[in-house]
Amino acid sequence: MSSASVQNRGSAAVTGAGSGLGRDIALGLAAMNYRVFGTALSADEVADLEQASNGTVSLTVCDMTDQAAVNSWAREVDSRTEGLDLLINNAGILTPGPVEVLSLGAIRREFEVNVFGALSVINAFLPALRKARGRIVQVSTWTASLPLPFNGPSGASKAAMEAFAAVYRAELKPFGIDVVVAAAGNMKTGGPVKTAAALKRIADGMTPEQQRLYGPTFGMFADKLNSMQESGLESAAAAMRVIEIAEQVPAPSKAGVGQDAEEILRFVRERSDAEQDARRLQIVGL
């Protein structure tokens, strides 16, 4: 994004804007005089954000895994703008559990949303981003750099998108499009309730043998993950940090959202594989 477009604001599209971090990002951008478009999962989310933003945020119900729906949304945004200044790819899901216990279908679903859905959004908006010489912000997580046990699909899918972000950064450089990874730390985004429910579903669905093998350690992980989320950064504060990264000139390749994320990213850069293996176990209390 050029300094001029940052100064004058412009248009922004945010995926997963109906709740949590994406909702706060959309509201924050609107408060800064961006023209904001976004996706939501339901009509209720659309109505809620329309009221919360006094009609300044335009949401569309859209499934990120539906290529036709994504393309339709991108065309709608393009028809109402003269190019897209900012795309914040935020939508994502979390599928915790031991890799041996999780079905391949559940893991595949996480990749469909977190990777293929994200790729389809970026590709759909590239013509509009070229017009404005805009910027892409891929919201990731520090577990892409230091993957945790019982959190494999999330870390792996986000790591895959970080690899794609690096490739996009090189391929889109001739068009003046910046690509930035915003690696989120622990946050209070409404996620703890959803995460706790997901953790319980996985634990309750284990066979007696799986319970014997993984029950105690997965229980420790679940307690630690719930605690980390409950004590994490407030969603509104995390959103403002993402927006700050989105407007930073020159564009960073990757930046942490929250002190914990910045510390982990620094740790991974500086420490050995053995130290990282020990740290990932320590983080989840194993």
In the sheet with the most strands, the strands line up as 3-2-1-4-5-6-9
- The biggest beta sheet, please? 7 strands, parallel
Number of strands: 9
Second rung of CATH, namely the architecture? 3-Layer(aba) Sandwich
CATH class type: Alpha Beta
What's the name of the CATH homologous superfamily? NAD(P)-binding Rossmann-like Domain
Q: What distance lies between the first and last C-alpha atoms, to the nearest angstrom? A: 43 Å
Low-confidence stretches: 1-6
In total, the number of domains comes to 1
Task: Report the order of strands and helices.
Answer: HEHEHEHEHEHEEHHEHEHH
Give the percentage of residues in beta strands: 5-15%
What spatial form do the alpha-carbon principal axes imply?
Answer: globular
- The pLDDT mean sits at 93
Task: Count the DSSP helices.
Answer: 11
Written account of the structure:
Helices cover 57% and strands 14% of the residues. The chain has 286 residues and is of the alpha/beta class. It has a single domain, classed as NAD(P)-binding Rossmann-like Domain (Rossmann fold), CATH 3.40.50.720. Strands 3-2-1-4-5-6-9 form a seven-stranded parallel beta sheet, with helices on both faces. Strands 7-8 form a two-stranded parallel sheet. Helix 5 (104-132) packs parallel to helix 6. The longest helix is centred in the middle third of the chain and has 29 residues, at 104-132. It is globular. It starts with a helix and ends with a helix.
